[in-house]
Amino acid sequence: MGQALLRTAAEFADVTITGAVASAHSTRLGRDAGEPAGVRLGVAVSADLPAALGAADVVIDFSHPQAAAEHLAACRAAGKPLLIGTTGFAPQLVEAELEAASRDIALLVAPNTSLGVTLLTELVRIAARALPPQFDIEILERHHRMKLDAPSGTALALARSAAEGRNLPAGQATATVGASRAGPRRQGEIGFAVLRGGDVVGEHEVWFAGAGERLSLTHQAADRAIFARGALRAALWLAHQPAGRYTMRDILFKNQ
Ligand SMILES: NC(=O)c1ccc[n+]([C@@H]2O[C@H](COP(=O)([O-])OP(=O)(O)OC[C@H]3O[C@@H](n4cnc5c(N)ncnc54)[C@H](OP(=O)(O)O)[C@@H]3O)[C@@H](O)[C@H]2O)c1
């Protein structure tokens, strides 16, 4: 995602990359951050986030769950707005920490920064509210073989949205995954199916199955650039917001 961001940043006239941070073990430390995109940015890849923060108006994190927690603390200390795109960070990065940080900085946590998925999340909420509870809700997601977390952060967010639409407690969105499910389906349960393989960028389908009819809402990501584009657009907006907690929904509906 870091490379996708650097490539896509060139599409935004008002974005300047002021720092690029990788792990202390990265093979790219000291090299120009633009290299993978074939451009020279004059910004060396570093492992020192606090130092890299100096010239930044806003920070975008797509890293690793543990690193995201460290990046949150560094941005809070430096008073820099932060967009976290990293997924799978519970329990290292708990809700209480995010809430506390959002009292000091503008914070946007987005398990999916695609504008299409952001809209899908809203459509799922509307469908779940409108359709009677006899419609079973299942969420199917497919990702590349290297993905660490399952179900995906996006699948969990879609489940939260469906649960909100039905006024169910968030815990109702239980992670019932694939073959681990046995016996008849419990009404009200929101189930997950997870497929991993190849280089699939990310596909999510929310399935409302009633008696005699089925509705399916689907998003397919064909290129990682969609996440980068959405993250950059969101970061440009976030840079001008006061301390608080924001979501991609704000980008879609308040940024028009
Ligand atoms: N929100 C969204 O829309 C969205 C979209 C795609 C992916 N994601 C999530 O974003 C995260 C990253 O995905 P990816 O595919 O880009 O993973 P990746 O290819 O494994 O890249 C992870 C990056 O994080 C860096 N990193 C790891 N530990 C670090 C640390 N302690 N400090 C600083 N940097 C560190 C790595 O640096 P090195 O160079 O040292 O390896 C690498 O550049 C995952 O959680 C993924 O699920 C979210």
Overall description:
The chain has helices at about 1-10, 50, 65-80, 95-100, 115-130, 155-165, 225-240, 250-255, and strands spanning about 20, 45, 60, 80-85, 105-110, 135-145, 190-195, 200-210, 215-220, 245. The two termini are about 25 Å apart. A hairpin with a 4-residue loop joins strand 8 (about 200-210) and strand 9 (about 215-220). The model has no long low-confidence stretch (mean pLDDT about 90). The longest helix is centred in the middle third of the chain and has 16 residues, at about 115-130. The protein is an alpha/beta fold and about 260 residues long. It has two domains: about 1-115 and about 225-255, Rossmann fold, CATH 3.40.50.720; about 115-220, Dihydrodipicolinate Reductase, domain 2 (2-Layer Sandwich), CATH 3.30.360. The protein has a four-stranded parallel sheet, with helices on both faces. A four-stranded mixed sheet has the order 7-6-8-9, with helices on one face. Strands 1-2 form a two-stranded parallel ribbon. The structure holds NADP nicotinamide-adenine-dinucleotide phosphate.
